[in-house]
Amino acid sequence: MRRCLFASILLLLSQPAYGFGLGDIGETLYRAEQALNLAKALIPISDEEELILGRAVAARVIGRYGVAQTPQQTYYLNLIGTALAQRSDRPDIAYHFAILNTNDVNAYACPGGFIFITYGALTMVRDEAELAAVLAHEIAHVSERHIVKAMQKSKLMKVGANVASEALAYGGPLFDQMTEFATNALFEGLSKSDEYDSDTKAIEYLDRLGYDYPAMFDVLDLLDERRKAGETQVLAKTHPTPRMRRKELQKAGRKLKLEEPTSIRLKPRFAQQIQSQ
Amino acid sequence: MPSHPDCVSLGKNRPPLFDRHAQIAYRFCMSRLLFCLVFVTGFVASAIAADTDEYYISPRTGIDMLENAKRDAATVSHLPRLTPVAPLRKQRSWQKIEVTVKHQTLEGWVPEGAIRKRYQASDIEKKKSMFSGISSLFRSPADTRKTAVLGARGLEEEGALLKPAGGVDKNMVRWMEGLHVNDSEVAAFILEGDLNP
Hints:
The complex is a heterodimer. Helix content of chain A is 69%, strand content 5%. By secondary structure, chain A is mainly alpha-helical. In chain A, a hairpin with a 3-residue loop joins β2 and β3. In chain A, α12 (215-228) runs antiparallel to α14. The longest helix of chain A is centred in the N-terminal third of the chain and has 19 residues, at 24-42. Chain A starts with a helix and ends with a helix. Chain B is α+β, with helices and mostly antiparallel strands. Among the domains of chain B are: 5-50; 55-117. Chain B contains 8 helices and 5 strands. In chain B, a hairpin with a 2-residue loop joins β2 (84-91) and β3. The chains are: A mainly alpha, B alpha+beta. Chains A and B meet through α1, α2, α3, α4 and α5 of A and α2, α4, α5, α7 and α8 of B.
């Protein structure tokens, strides 16, 4: 009887051996657990890591177009942007805004809160509310972490969380690849749903700050006019058509509980700050 | 109670059939235990082997940090980044290292965080291939995947798209970060525009 008991205990003790890869089921379970851990490990990119990545991406965007060093306009842009960012869904990070030296009509949001509007887009909008609408759209890309999420889901990040965070903290070839990925996602364009989502969020942010949120529709109408005139070639490659965006925004807007539009457009202030330069 | 005649000869008061079964179970368990032991030994050996992997000076560790390493032993300074080093012993947050520069072996102290294990490209490939089958079960939503695909396509075309278009301007990023707008200025701006405070 004692020997039987001893054998049973040994049998129980020896079962974990399956878990260490000696049996088919044990091996599958072990790998599934590892894969689960890996899937979990893909998710976290901290705000600090995002900021490091954002700096590198912003450096490439600036390297491509150059920044207009117009202190008054940039300061004005930062005031509008910061006010909007404070009412965004991610107000706890520092946002920085600048003007890109290009006549293309476009705007870019890098991870970590680096936001650019092109000189072409700045001269296209007609009042402060429309400018705020463009910035709110970009802030929404940052607050929703669209590029970071795309990167986390990409094959690039399936290297293990420790390797990725090592690369983000200390640089190296993998960090360069991540930067290139994020920069290309920026220049190639995000998915349509990311763009529609940002349009919807932009309306919310405009409403929270008290701007006349139909300005967002006016910006889309302006873009449509420019598109027909063939002046938004870059934007057309990276965004859905303004008409489609308008349609989706109208659909999504019905579900939002927005206040009545305020008619605050602040055209004179905009003219003083931007058009007088 | 009279004992079984076979058992009397063996000096045991059990039926022989039961004894054989117990023996088989015992042998089976022992073999399993042995396998387990071999695995654990292998695991420990690999952990020891990992510890002897190549270490290097972190790329973000400035030479200043090395110059500031003040211990009794000679201070290693002016080492190029990514120089392979051998970690010797730790003392609090300091790490003693050995480094060979121009056939001369030097020893010195650096902050513990200054040296990092070197990740080989083959490590990454191995991890990817090992789990690619199962991790494919955890697929992303289609739209996010599309963004990822666009990014990856950009990566492939990176040579054609990005490099001729411009370089990297870190100074202007610092300039952007230096533009400080404080809360009181934003509050005044909001009030001036009659926006929601």
